[in-house]
Structures are given as C-alpha cells and as structure tokens.
Design brief:
6 helices; mainly alpha
Length: 183
C-alpha cells in the first residue's frame, strides 16, 4: 500500500513540477524558465510538498522489505541506503518548498539589478537541490537500496518484486551516471 502511495505521490509531484517548467520532460530545466512565471512559485511549492510525502511513504517500504527478508545477506546495509534515500529526497523537497517560491515571488517584485541577483541565487538553489541532491546523491542511495535489495531477495520473493526493484534501481543508476559524467 505504501509503495503504491509513494509512486502515486511522486507522479503527482512530477505533474506539478512539469507544469511549473512548461510541461518539459527534460531532467533539467533552465532555472530562468521557472523564475519567469509567477505561477511556477505555487506549482513548485505544492509539487515539493507532495514530493516530500512521497519520499516519506518510501520509509515503510524500506522497513517492510528489511523485516520481511531479515535473514538476507547485507539487507540491513541496503535498508540504510533506502532510509538515506528517504531523508535525502524529503530534505531536498522541503528546501525547494520553502526557498524556491520565495525567490520566485521576490524575482517578480525586484528591479532589473535585483532580478540578476535572484537569478544567481535561484540557479544555485536549483542546481544544488535538483542536480546535486535529487539527481546525484539520492540516485546513488536509491540505486544501492533497490539493486542491493533485489539481489539480496532473489529467489526469496516473487519475481515481480525482484524485477520492479531492479528496474527502478537501474533507472536511478542511469540518472546518477548521467549526472556524474556530465553527459
């Protein structure tokens, strides 16, 4: 139930984030696109709040898989990686929910010189949270949890669970490799 809820909440947050970015499907959006639209402030705020709850719904899934497969080799280590995913992701969401809307609102009230300063700060915030926290650090923790857990439960859990964990883990690997290599 928590896994389904986490997926639904994460999909919901993506709708808000995508709307804020003009329905872009890219991993990165130019921060100025987000600053230019005053409506993006509320969209990012709500998307981030929903995103935070999506991450928090992952925690019971991590604990369930760890408890269900308590005898599996290294399962506790993989659970720690899963909890890191929850903490890292939800912390990034809280930062975006609190800082991004404020900066966007201030951008629309600022003089042209003030707008340049806010653009610089917002770009740094965006790169730190989206690229650094979510798409690099979180992706590494998520990949370790999902792929490690999949390997640890091979033959002990339904194949669908194994393949879903592996699939989502490989997506995280792809995102992390993309960010770490700068491709």
């Amino acid at each position: 139930m928590f896994a389904v809820l986490a997926i639904l909440l994460e999909m919901g947050s993506l709708v808000f984030y995508s709307a804020a970015a003009g329905f872009s499907v890219s991993l990165s959006v130019s921060p100025i696109v987000l600053l230019a639209s005053q409506s993006s402030a509320r969209l990012i705020e709500w998307g981030s709040i929903i995103d935070m709850f999506g991450y928090l719904c992952i925690a019971p899934v991590v604990l369930y898989l760890r408890d269900r497969h308590a005898g599996a080799r290294l399962i506790n280590l993989y659970a720690v990686a899963g909890m890191c995913l929850v903490v890292i992701g939800s912390a990034g969401a809280v930062v975006m929910a609190t800082a991004a809307p404020y900066l966007i609102d201030q951008y629309h009230l600022a003089s042209s010189g003030g707008k340049q300063n806010i653009d610089l700060v917002f770009t740094a915030l965006y790169r730190a949270v989206v690229v650094g926290i979510w798409q690099t650090l979180e992706s590494l923790a998520g990949a370790a949890w999902l792929i490690g857990t999949a390997i640890a439960i091979w033959g002990k859990a339904p194949r669908l669970v194994y393949f879903l964990l592996l699939l989502f883990g490989l997506v995280y690997v792809g995102i992390a490799v993309y960010r770490l290599t700068g491709l």
